[in-house]
């Protein structure tokens, strides 16, 4: 036995919380312990590692129950792992592990994540592990895992279940699994093949229809593509025209808005410039006054001795200055008055122009309205003309369609009847020619009698041949059995010899390998002196390391202390230096800050006083802001009112357009319905005969779908009348008792059709069949006068007359036309009733649109007036706010600065005092530097000592690690060698014993083979018997073939005779039945020819359709031109209305601006008069002061040096003031120009936005109705292009509708069907080959299984008989295959006869006898196919001491024979005494199992007692 189980390691499995190892050594290993301590958990761990997949068979609910669940003292584990170690596995496992001599099979389960298998660390499938153990005759459920339950199951099992024992012994357990898998694949493949054939047949039948549909679908797609392209082009044309109008209007609006933006920017710039100019003037004037005051002060200082002369000079200078200022003010007032006058003149001219335009606009609008009215009248005239032409064309087309349909039906009916007549005549001639002759009938009867005689003779011959073949087969079977038995005995002897030779060779090789491993392990042992030396060196290295670590710790402490001292000294030095530098800088900064604070406080006090004097009163600012907010609210209200009015105008325009469209659609529907009704009326009149009597069909009301049924039932009776003097009439007769109509669901037409009373009797006798009912089957049950009709026009009359469904019927066509005419008249009356409502709706919508337009004009004028008021209010507020902001900003800036300056002064004084005190408190810098240098030297010395100690510790650690590694490696090598020696020595001894036994067995096998008789005699007898059996089988097959030929001949004769008789009868019946039908077809053919001639004459008399279509086309083009003219007139009128509103709004704005500029002109005139008066007064004063004495000149020359500087400053200030005043004048002029441009820009924007909104409304309506096609730009945007596209679309729609329903996916479905058929055919071929391979595989597996099962049955039976006699100390027993001739299906029955009892089956024995018998069978299987390991779980429980002794002796013999390693779980003391070693399973800690081991041989040697005596 090559493979060996050597070790089982358990961790986290069930009660084994801690990892434990169980060495599976050669011999008997016992597992003992009290109940509930976990003994069976060891066995279940072994089964789980072998591939057990059922948690219930392991006493668990699920796989997570196999993981240690924890106790009160221990927490649960999340991982369970069991490792099984095998040796000698080279060549056993599947690749890539086939070359491994040792396998470690590990199964690991993680809580909530399932389990996996690993072999030598590589993951593997569970099936591969199970197959590996099955090939080793072991496994989780093999016969090698024996328990009390297993023994009881074997005893109580049915014979079919016991067969698994033999299958395991034969090693075909895996064979069964592979065969079952192959059978499942075979059944699935056959099912797939059947489904593939069904699907292929279905697809082939469907493919023909799909090809026809695909041609129709291609034509439908071509028409749809052309239609879609035409519709898209038309839609793109409409969108392009609308967008072109929007783009043009939008471009104009953008240009006007851009101009308006520029005007607004210019106005804002001019206002800002004027504001800045006004803002700078007061400051410049103040500086001028200051310079003047300074100049006067210098003059006073220079003229100390001549104050009167100084005052005169000062007065002259002041007069001159005032004169210059007065002249400047006069020039500015004059410029403002001139600008105001120009603006007033310009506005007055614009007002006159607007008034003239507004006066002329009513005439233009009246003319535009008249033009629009004329265009609308022309549109109505053209619409009436088009409507009349369309009506005539529709009627003519309907008449032509009707005549064409009648012509087509007549031609088809005539051709069909002609073909039917010819076909029926030819068919009757053929039938007469096929009638058989009487001589042929007599010959067939004679041939039938002869075939019957030959069949009886062939049956007798076959029975004789079958009897002879049965006798020969029986003889051959007996001979074959004798030959098989002889060959089996020879084969068994050869196999036993081969096995013994192979076993002896294998044991010798295994003995050599073990000896080599023993020498290697012995060489790996380490001497005790070497181990002691290593331990001493390790202790010395540890002591050295401890001393180095202590020295390093002390050095680190010293270095840390020195570093702390150095850092403290350096920090004190740095702190002193920094404090000195900071204190000096702070002292200097505090002095400078104090000086700056004093100067700043003095200047800010003066600025604060000036800012408080320039503040603005809050009431003035509040009043300006209130006025501006009121104006903004009014403007917002006016804007909302304007938006509401414009929205109402848009809504009214939309409603007006919708009402117009509805009225147009209604009129078009009326025209279409009138033309349709007229065409139907003319068609009905054309088909009726000229008579003065009303036909009854006019008084009949037929539901939809029953026209064909009623026409088939009454035919020509529909043209008759109920008038008493009519040549064809219906008499009103009393009603008869209604006889029931045949058929389920048959309804009389009298209940469905409304007709005059004269037709009541006829309609009551006509029944309407349900859809799908067969009238031919019910025709024979009709009573006289009754008829049955179908909705498709089929007729069955009581006298045998029948009309097929779908026949052309003029009466049915007339009935359908009359129903259509009634529906058309009803729809026309509904449209006529809706016409006045639509007209009144259009008038109301037009009136609402006019009112909304007037409201928009009023709202725009109000908004313009409010905008002017708002602009003035904003200007006033801005001016006041600017002044107030300037004053407040100055005050708010100066006041905090003044307060801050006072606080800064106080802080500067305090900081100056503190800086002086800090400078006095600074420490000595020399002492701090000396302390730092001493601390640095101490730190360097400590660092050097620490480095030395660290290097010493590192050397000690290196030495310790090397010593520890060497000691651990030596101890591991020595322990591994000892463990391997302890395992190898017993195994080597066992192999030596087994090798001697194997050599003895080989010699015995050679002697047995030599003693067997030769098999040549049995082979010759078998050949003779088989030859006779083959001859008998050949004769039987010849007789069977003759019988089959006779049967086929008789069957052919019978078939030919029956077919000839049936043909004769059928032909005669057909001839008798078809003769009247031929005459009827001839009559119908003649009638169809007459009808065809009449319809052709009527078709030639139809009017020319192309001329009528040309008239309709001309009328439609004239209508399009009229509508275009009407649209242009309406657009011109809307433009004039917009211009009127715009001009009115502009006039209102001009009036407001004129009033504003008039008031400005008056103010400028008043200002100019005041400036002129001031100028005159200043000139008089200047003239008076200029005549002062010449002392002023002498005084000026005396103080010239002091006055030059003051004069230059004053001149500079005066120059700047003059420049600022000039800038103010220019800014005011620019502001006036910008405001005029802004007003003009706003008017232009209003006009452009009106046009743009109109164009956008048209485009939005178009977009709301239809989306714009992407990527299409029509080259032609004319009306003619649109008309051409519409005609093309109508033609394509008509062609597509005439095609009827179309399957658009037919082509794709056909391609898919062809692809699937090809794929299915290819897959069918693959499935056929796969089925053949699977059947061959299953047959091979069955043959191999039978051969191996029969071979092992004999061997197991022999071992069972021997073991039974040994276990019972006598008696006899044997095994039998029962229930089926096939060994793979037969059951295994056990027959036993204990000493002193009769032969009986296993179920009739006592409990102990059953257990011993079952164990005998199990051990017999072991002897046949020994397993590497066997587990016996308390199987000795039902045995007494004597039987336990025999049982243990048998185990010892099996260990010696096969080398099987036994794990025996037992409570029996005698069994324990026979074990080689014991493992005790204890549970010292509740819920946690532990394992203790005892080697009984070693224990016996320790107490000095031989093992054999201890066992007794």
Automatic annotation (TrEMBL):
SUPFAM superfamilies attached to this UniProt entry: P-loop containing nucleoside triphosphate hydrolases (SSF52540)
The keyword DNA-binding appears for this protein: yes
Composition bias, Basic and acidic residues: 948-979, 995-1005
GO MF term list: ATP binding; ATP hydrolysis activity; DNA binding
First-listed, main subcellular location of the protein, grouped into a coarse class: cytoplasm
Function: Required for chromosome condensation and partitioning.
Protein name, per record: Chromosome partition protein Smc
Species of provenance: Gluconacetobacter asukensis
Domain of life the protein comes from: Bacteria
Complexes and interactors: Homodimer.
Annotated stretches, region: Disordered: 498-520, 927-981, 995-1015
CDD domains in the record: ABC_SMC_barmotin (cd03278)
Keyword list, A-Z: ATP-binding, Coiled coil, Cytoplasm, DNA-binding, Nucleotide-binding
Residues that hold ATP according to the record: 34-41
Ranges annotated as biased composition (Low complexity): 937-947, 1006-1015
């Amino acid at each position: 036995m090559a493979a060996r189980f050597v070790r089982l390691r358990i961790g986290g499995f069930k009660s084994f919380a801690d990892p434990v190892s169980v060495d599976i050594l050669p011999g008997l290993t016992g597992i003992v312990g009290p109940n509930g301590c976990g003994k069976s958990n060891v066995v279940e761990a072994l089964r789980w590692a072998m591939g057990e997949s059922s948690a219930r068979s392991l006493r668990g609910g699920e796989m997570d129950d196999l993981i240690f669940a924890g106790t009160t003292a221990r927490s649960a584990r999340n991982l369970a792992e069991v490792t099984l170690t095998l040796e000698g596995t080279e060549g056993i496992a599947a690749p890539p592990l086939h070359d491994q001599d040792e396998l470690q099979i590990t199964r690991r389960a993680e809580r909530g994540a399932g389990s996996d298998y690993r072999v030598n660390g590589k993951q593997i499938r569970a099936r591969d592990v199970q197959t590996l153990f099955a090939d080793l005759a072991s496994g989780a459920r093999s016969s090698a895992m024996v328990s009390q339950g297993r023994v009881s199951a074997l005893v109580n099992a049915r014979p079919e279940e016991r067969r698994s024992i033999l299958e395991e012994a034969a090693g075909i357990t895996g064979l069964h699994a592979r065969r079952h898998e192959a059978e499942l694949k075979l059944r699935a493949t056959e099912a797939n093949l059947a489904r593939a054939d069904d699907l292929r047949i279905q697809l082939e039948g469907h493919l023909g229809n799909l090809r026809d549909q695909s041609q129709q679908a291609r034509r439908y797609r071509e028409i749809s593509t052309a239609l879609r392209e035409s519709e898209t082009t038309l839609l793109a044309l409409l969108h392009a025209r609308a967008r072109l109008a929007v783009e043009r209007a939008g471009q104009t609006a953008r240009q006007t808005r851009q101009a308006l933006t520029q005007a607004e920017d210019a106005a804002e710039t001019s206002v800002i410039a004027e504001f800045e100019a006004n803002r700078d003037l007061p400051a410049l004037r103040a500086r001028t006054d200051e310079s003047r005051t300074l100049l006067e002060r210098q003059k006073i200082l220079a003229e100390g001795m001549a104050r009167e002369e100084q005052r005169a000079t000062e007065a002259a200078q002041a007069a001159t200055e005032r004169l210059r200022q007065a002249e400047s003010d006069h020039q500015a007032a004059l410029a403002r008055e001139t600008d105001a006058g120009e603006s007033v003149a310009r506005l007055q001219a614009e007002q006159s122009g607007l008034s003239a335009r507004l006066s002329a606009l009513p005439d233009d609008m009246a003319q535009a309205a008249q033009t629009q009215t004329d265009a609308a009248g022309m549109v109505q005239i053209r619409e009436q003309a088009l409507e009349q032409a369309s009506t005539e064309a529709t009627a003519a087309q309907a008449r032509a369609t009707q005549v064409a349909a009648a012509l087509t039906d007549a031609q088809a009916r005539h051709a069909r009847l002609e073909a039917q007549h010819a076909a029926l005549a030819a068919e009757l001639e053929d039938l007469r020619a096929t009638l058989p002759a009487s001589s042929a009938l007599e010959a067939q009867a004679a041939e039938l009698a002869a075939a019957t005689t030959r069949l009886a003779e062939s049956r007798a011959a076959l029975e004789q041949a079958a009897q002879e073949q049965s006798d020969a087969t029986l003889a051959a079977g007996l001979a074959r059995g004798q030959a098989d038995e002889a060959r089996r005995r020879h084969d068994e002897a050869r196999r036993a010899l081969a096995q013994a030779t192979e076993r002896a060779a294998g044991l010798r090789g295994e003995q050599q390998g073990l000896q080599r491993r023993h020498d290697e392990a012995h060489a790996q042992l380490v001497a005790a002196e070497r181990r002691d030396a290593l331990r001493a060196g390790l202790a010395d290295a540890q002591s050295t390391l401890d001393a180095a670590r202590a020295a390093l710790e002390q050095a680190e402490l010293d270095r840390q202390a020195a570093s702390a001292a150095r850092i403290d000294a350096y920090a004190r030095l740095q702190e002193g230096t920094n404090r000195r530098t900071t204190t000096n800088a702070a002292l200097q900064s505090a002095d400078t800050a104090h000086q700056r604070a004093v100067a700043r406080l003095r200047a800010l006090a003066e600025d604060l006083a000036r800012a408080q004097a320039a503040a603005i009163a809050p009431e003035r600012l509040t009043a300006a802001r209130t006025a501006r907010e009121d104006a903004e609210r009014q403007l917002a209200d006016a804007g909302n009112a304007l938006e509401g009015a414009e929205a109402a105008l848009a809504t009214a325009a939309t409603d007006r357009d919708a009402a117009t469209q509805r009225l147009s659609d209604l009129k078009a529907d009326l025209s279409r319905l009138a033309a349709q009704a007229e065409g139907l009326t003319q068609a009905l009149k054309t088909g009726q005969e000229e008579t003065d009597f009303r036909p009854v069909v006019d008084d009949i009301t037929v539901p939809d779908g029953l026209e064909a049924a009623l026409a088939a039932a009454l035919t020509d009776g529909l043209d008759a009348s109920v008038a008493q003097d009519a040549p064809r009439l219906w008499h009103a007769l009393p009603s008869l008792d209604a006889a029931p109509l045949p058929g389920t669901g048959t309804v009389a037409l009298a209940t469905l059709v409304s007709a005059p009373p004269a037709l009541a009797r006829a309609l009551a006798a006509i029944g309407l069949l349900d859809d799908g009912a067969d009238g031919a089957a019910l025709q024979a049950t009709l009573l006289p006068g009754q008829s049955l009709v179908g909705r498709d026009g089929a007729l069955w009359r009581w006298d045998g007359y029948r009309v097929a469904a779908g026949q052309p019927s003029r009466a049915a066509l007339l009935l359908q036309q009359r129903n259509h005419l009634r529906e058309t008249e009803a729809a026309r009356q509904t449209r006529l009733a809706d016409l006045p409502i639509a007209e009144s709706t259009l008038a109301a919508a037009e009136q609402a649109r006019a009112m909304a337009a007037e409201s928009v004009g009023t709202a725009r004028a109000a908004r313009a007036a409010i905008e002017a008021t708002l602009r003035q209010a904003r200007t006033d507020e801005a001016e006041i706010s600017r002044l107030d902001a300037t004053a407040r900003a100055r005050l708010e800036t100066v006041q905090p600065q003044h307060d801050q300056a006072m606080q800064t002064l106080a802080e500067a004084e305090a900081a100056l005092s503190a800086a002086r005190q800090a400078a006095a408190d600074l420490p000595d810098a020399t002492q701090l530097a000396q302390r730092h240098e001493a601390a640095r030297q101490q730190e360097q010395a400590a660092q050097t000592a620490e480095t030395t100690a660290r290097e010493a510790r590192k050397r000690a650690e290196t030495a310790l690690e090397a010593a520890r590694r060497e000691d651990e490696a030596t101890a591991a090598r020595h322990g591994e060698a000892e463990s391997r020696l302890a395992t190898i020595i017993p195994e080597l001894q066992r192999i030596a014993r087994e090798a001697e036994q194997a050599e003895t067995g080989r010699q015995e096998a050679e002697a047995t083979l030599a003693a067997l008789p030769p098999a040549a005699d049995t082979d010759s007898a078998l050949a003779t018997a088989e030859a006779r059996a083959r001859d008998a089988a050949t004769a039987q097959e010849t007789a069977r073939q003759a019988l089959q030929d006779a049967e086929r001949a008789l069957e052919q004769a019978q078939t030919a005779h029956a077919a000839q008789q049936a043909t004769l009868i059928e032909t005669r019946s057909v001839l008798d039945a078809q003769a009247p039908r031929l005459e009827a077809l001839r009559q119908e053919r003649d009638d169809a020819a007459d009808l065809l001639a009449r319809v052709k004459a009527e078709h030639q008399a139809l009017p020319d359709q192309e001329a009528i279509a040309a008239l309709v086309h001309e009328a439609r083009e004239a209508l399009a031109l009229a509508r275009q003219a009407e649209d242009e007139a309406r657009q011109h009128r809307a433009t004039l209305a917009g211009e009127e509103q715009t001009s009115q709004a502009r006039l209102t704005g001009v009036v407001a601006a004129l009033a504003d500029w008039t008031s400005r002109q008056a103010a400028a005139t008043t200002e100019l008069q005041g400036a002129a008066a001031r100028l005159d007064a200043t000139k008089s004063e200047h003239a008076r002061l200029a005549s002062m004495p010449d002392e002023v000149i002498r005084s000026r020359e005396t103080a010239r040096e002091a006055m030059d500087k003051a004069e230059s400053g004053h001149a500079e200030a005066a120059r700047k003031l003059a420049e600022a005043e000039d800038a103010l004048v220019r800014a005011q002029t620019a502001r006036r120009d910008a405001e005029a441009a802004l007003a003009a820009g706003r008017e232009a924007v209003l006009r452009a936005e009106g046009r743009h909104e109109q164009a956008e409304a048209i485009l939005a309506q178009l977009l709301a109705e239809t989306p714009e096609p992407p990527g299409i730009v029509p080259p032609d945007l004319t009306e003619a292009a649109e008309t051409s596209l519409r005609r093309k679309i109508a033609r394509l729609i008509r062609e597509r509708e005439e095609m009827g329903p179309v399957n658009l996916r037919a082509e794709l479905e056909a391609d898919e069907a062809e692809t699937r058929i090809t794929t299915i055919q290819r897959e069918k071929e693959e499935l056929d080959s796969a089925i053949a391979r699977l059947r061959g595989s299953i047959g091979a597996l069955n043959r191999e299984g039978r051969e191996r099962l029969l071979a092992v049955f004999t061997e197991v039976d022999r071992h069972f008989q021997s073991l039974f006699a040994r276990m019972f100390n006598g008696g006899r027993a044997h095994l039998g295959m029962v229930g089926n001739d096939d060994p793979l299906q037969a059951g295994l029955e056990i027959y036993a006869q204990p000493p002193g009892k009769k032969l009986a089956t296993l179920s009739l024995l006592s409990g102990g006898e059953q257990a011993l018998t079952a164990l005998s069978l199990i051990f017999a299987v072991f002897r046949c196919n020994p397993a590497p390991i066997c587990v016996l779980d308390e199987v000795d429980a039902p045995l007494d001491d004597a039987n336990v002794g025999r049982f243990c002796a048998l185990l010892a013999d099996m260990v010696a024979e096969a080398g099987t390693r036994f794990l025996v779980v037992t409570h029996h003391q005698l069994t324990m005494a026979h074990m080689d070693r014991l493992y005790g399973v204890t549970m010292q800690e509740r819920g946690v199992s532990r394992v203790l081991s005892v080697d009984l041989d070693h224990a016996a040697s320790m107490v000095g007692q031989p093992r054999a005596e201890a066992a007794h």
